[in-house]
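Quick start: what a row looks like.
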Amino acid sequence: MASISLNDVSLTFPVITESGGSLRKKLVKMTTGGAISNDNSNTVLINALRNINLDLREGDRVGLIGHNGSGKSTLLRTLAGIYAPTSGEVKVSGSVRALFELGVGTDHELTGRANIARLARLYGYPLDQIEADMGSIEEFSGLGGYLDLPIRTYSSGMQLRLIFAISTLYPCDILLIDEVFGVGDEAFQIKAKERMESMMASSKIVVLASHSKELIKKFCNKTITLDTGGIAKISAIGEYE
């Protein structure tokens, strides 16, 4: 059974500077992100997540909302296992797919096909299954012969099409999404939207960070409002305006 449980999770990033105090004053004036403190040395502490307690079960479709820097992306990366909490405990049960910055994990000197194999290892796909589905990837991405060329020869849109095609190829239990709906040209966006909707429907738990009220209302049944790295409010989707 898919589940996510966070018990008093906090995450602090230390930033070493020559003058921690003066940098802290500058950051306090400009930041909209996590709370900032220092340890009376040259280290500034960015408290990216603060005492997060959260339990998600099958059927939960959660929209993460809050201003830029409120902790949405950091929380998603903690759920994905990219960041380890400074304190507290994270328990995740089920297969996880994280759709964040499309482009992480690629090697621009390798061909499209070699990058497919590279990303397959990153996502935990069986390589024999990927080989069997190579035609499906080629068709969906629309890249044809470009798959045999280094991806440094691709436009940014072509790279996104390749990465999106492989990252969304198979279903998963838990889907973590950080604003990836605007992928490629208009024709590809239609295919991408259909595949994303299919993945979200088949996933047991979905956590979506977005500034789009339309997306949140369409795909989510509850919202979590984050503020300076902490949970400010958990609401039913009907309360989201």
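That is the whole record. Residues 99-203 form a domain with the Rossmann fold fold (CATH 3.40.50.300). Strands lie at 3-16, 35-38, 43-57, 61-65, 87-93, 96-99, 174-178, 205-209, 222-227, 230-236.
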